[in-house]
Amino acid sequence: MKKxxxxxxxxxxxxxxxxxxxxxxxxxxxxxxxxxxxTKVVAxxxxxxxxxxxxxxxxxxxxxxxxxxxxxITAVYYSQNYNLTLTGNDNGLLIITKDDGTIINKVDIIxxxxxxxxxxxINHFYEYENKVYISTDYGITVLKLNNLEFExxxxxxxxxxxxxxxxxxxxxxxxxxxxxxxGIKRASxxxxxxxxxxxxxxxxxxxWKGITNFNNQLVALNADNNVxxxxxxxxxxxxxxxxxxxxxxxxxxxxxxxCNNHVYVLDILFxxxxxxTQIPDNINLFTCAITIGDDxxxxxxKEGLFQTKLSNPLTFELLSPNGPVQNYIxxxxxxxxxxxxxxxxxxxxxxxxxxxxxxxxxxxxVGWSEIxxxxxxxxxxxxxxxxxxxxxxxxxxxSFHKGLLKINDENIILYxxxxxxxNGLESxxxxxxxxxxxxxxxxxxxFDNKGNLWMTNSLTYKxxxxxxxxxxxxxxxxxxxLTEPFYERxxxxxxxxxxxKWIPSYRANGLIGFNENYNNKTILLKGDDEGxxxxxxxxxxxxxxxxxxxxxxxxxxxxLSSVDKFINETELTANSIIIEEDGLAQELFxxxxxxxxxxxxxxxxxxxxEGAGVFLVSPNGQNTLYRFTKxxxxxxxxxxxxxxxxxxxxxxxxxxxxGLISFxxxxxxxxxxxxxxxxxxxxxxxxxxxxxxxxxxxxxANIKITDIEGNLVYETTSEGGTIEWDTMAFGKYxxxxxxxxxxxxxxxxxxxxxxxxxxxR
Length: 761
Prior knowledge:
mainly beta; four-stranded antiparallel sheet; 2 helices; 65 strands; Secre_tail; T9SS type A sorting domain-containing protein; signal; WD40/YVTN_repeat-like_dom_sf; Reg_prop
């Protein structure tokens, strides 16, 4: 028998508040579980909560921006008696959210339960007499609701072993637990020694999936696709299901059974009063359902949460907040006033998910909208996005599956190996494992300064393609320059001011520099004496504002001091960045896998490291300005797939495997003149704790801030288009209430601007 363990108070309390520097762009379509109170329904996605008050219609959201930071949600429960929402996770984390916005993270199960970490998943909550019985993959843990402290844990497997508990209920003074795979166990709920596994007897040895006390009857869901009622002696069949049940729950008036394609609602006589098989215009993959009075709420796998009436279940209302199609976003791109997102893509070894065929677009006026997958010609694994610089309504999206999509308003064209032949896109040039499988693996589309569109075509001899501004296609053969080009895969292209294409490769060719204007000149940067790259697998490249090339590989970072070297030299060598840390010299991001590099308006670099969050480093890499991780910021994951910067507002977007969020940076692209300088917030009110931003600046503008009497309180020079002022007088003290003058002048003094800001303490 396992010894009783005492839960220590491993509790972290936070309070929901608006984070002015961060924004969440989460999807609320993938419903994991739902619960209910007298007047509201609560729904959980993998990493967020939302609830609707069915009387007022008010919608409330909790996500990482509010401090709600789950691992992976597996169960949710709302206690009407205590006004608490309990959220269980696959790692044992329990998050308790109060109606006043307080968020409590209880990590006792993670830290104290003496079982393997992969057996701490929370499966179900059951409230009874001021306690919640938490069904987990190791047993039952009891939480007291009056003080939110853990009381006991019951290991009820034969011999006291830990055993998965799927669901519990209380009936006629006994607690019943559905175990896997040991049937239903039972014990007296008043027994003071429930930690002793001997007190738990086998009630039924069948294979069960759920159990509930419905209208003072013990009802259970069996793996044989039937629902049974216990008559005091044995189980009697009351409902037969066409497929396995996945959620089994009861309210005062209804028994609700959810299957993948069916939702059944039964009354107290076990008569079917609603049977839902389809929500119009949606894929009918259901995950959970609940009723409140005459309202039926249905959670779906990918389409969100819907509400209908039991009395007339013909019309459905979508309740999920507006968001992207799903949280796993592969690539994002800011085009004009819209943010575009694609899904699918490939993993770090270019293994592709062909099934995700969707594009989302966000605008402040409309919110999120979707381009229907039916319009995309079956193109999955959508990777990069680029707009024609001469016509931003013309957007190109590469597919690592079927070619290149061209989207112009509602007109969509797919370029592939057939309609661009003979000089255009090609299918793979090795025999696929799947017979007759055609793969047109296109990636990294980018425009040069002549309006030509370039892209890579993996797994072919002619791995570089050009769609000229006049509509003609051109291919460039790598047979004599690359090792086995028909096996090679390529990441995103960067094109510099000289129209040199910098192409990251995966297998054996390192970084490829190519320029057709110099007789198809090609230079490869590899390892050691051939380029000094730490790995031949290059993941990303970026040309900064000083024409340096930053190179991210699977095993570290390198910088080429000038892209101009390609023009005049035949061999190129990149250098590591050496920094001093704790008095020791070391290489920046030594042996780290670099996922993405983006350059902001001040020439700082945002660099994401696989599994380690994101860094903002200074222009030369010597100083780390920010480091954001899941642990110290609202990031929902430390695996950041893509970074995108809005050069106008300074907003930095992070696409992660668990959702899209953004950070309001200050390093915007410099303006051409001072005609659009603006100051925000203005006025600065007493409850504001951030910094004053002055945006719309030209590069290297001189900014002086004085009080109304002309006393200088702050001075700086801009790098990029925005500067911040912390409302301190040279960092010594907070300035007093009043109007402050902002004098702005260009580096040569010819152009000037004067603005004002009011500060209220």
